[in-house]
Amino acid sequence: MTRVLLTGASGYIGKHITLQLLNQGYEVRASVRKLSKSSEVRDAVAPHLLEISYLDSRLTFIELDLEKDSGWNSALKDIDVLMHTASPFPLTSPKDENDLIRPAVEGTLRALRAAKNSGVKRVILTSSVAAIYGRELTSGALAYDETMWTDVEHPVGRVAYTKSKTLAEKAAWDFIKSEAPEIALTTINPVLVLGAPLDKNFGSSISLVERVLNGSDPMLPDLKFAIVDVQDVAKMHVYAIKSENTKNERIIASSETRSFVEIAKFLKSLYPKSKVKSAQAPTFIIRLLSLFDGSIKPILPQLGKPMNVSGSKAQRLLNISFIPVEVTLKESADYLIKNGFIKG
Fold first, then answer.
1. Potential cystine with 254: which of 69, 201, 283, 309 (Cβ 3.0-4.6 Å)?
2. Mean pLDDT value of segment 248-256
3. In sequence order, which ranges of 157-282 are alpha helices (DSSP H)?
4. What span, in angstroms and rounded, lies between the C-alpha atoms of 235 and 69?
C-alpha cells in the first residue's frame, strides 16, 4: 500500500485530500501543527468515507511545524509520497511581508530536504496561481498558463501573499534541480478555491461567498476571480501520484472566471431574499477608501485586471473535467446557509 505524508491535513484543501486519499486506497500519515487537531480531521472525513472500518489503520497523525526542524525526518520514514500542502494563507497582508514569506519558503525547503534525506522520490506540492499571474500577459497570450512566472517586482507580484507563493515554488524547483534531481516534483497551482468544506473549520477563501451573502459591502470592486472547486483540487493532487506525465510539471487548477458582480448576481438569483448587493463600485472610490483601510491596499493592483487562466493542461494530463463554477458557488452558499454562517 502506498504511504503518503500529507502536510497541512487540517486545512480546507487538506481535509478534502485526506478524504480522497483514503477513499482511493492510500495510507495517510497526516501532519498537523498540534495533535489536538487530529480529531478534527478524523471527524471531518469519517462521514464521507466509502469504508469506515479502515480509518484507524490507514490514517495516523504526526505533529510538524513549518518553522521547526524537529520531527521532519521521522515523519518521512517509510513514506512513498510527500504531499506538501501546508502554507500560510491570510485574509489580509501582514505588516512585515517576511511573516508570510519566511515560513512559506523555509517550510517548503524543510519538507523537501527531509524527503531527500528519507529517500522519498515523489513529491506533490500545493503552490498557487499567485506564482503565475503576478505579471502582464505575454504578447499574443489569451490566458495565464504554466509557462509563466510572477514577477515579484510587478505591482501584483509585490503583494506579500503572491510573493510568498512565488518564492516558495521557485525555491522548490531550484532545490530539485540543484540538490535532489532524483525527486519527481509536481506542483498544483489552484486559482480561488471554493466549494463545500467538510466541516465548520475551513480556510479564508470561501469567506468571499460568505461576504457576498451577508451583504458586507455596499458595492463591489471591479475584480475578477478564476475559480476551481475544492474537490477538483484534491482530485488533482491524488491523481498526480500515479500519473507519470505529471512528473516535473506545474499544473494549474482552474475551471472558469467570474467577476465579483457576476458572482453576486448569481447568488442573488438563487437566494432572492438574501442581503446580496451587486452594484459595482467605481474604482476611484476603492482607491480612496484604501487610504483609510489598509486591508484594501493589496487588491488595488488587481482592479480591472482580466483573470483568464487556462486549465487545459490539467484536462490533458489528468483527464479531469472541472466542476462548473455555478455548481461550486451553489454548494458553497448552501453549506454556509445550512451551517449558520449567514446572518438572518
1. 309
2. 98
3. 160-179, 207-213, 230-242, 260-270
4. 30
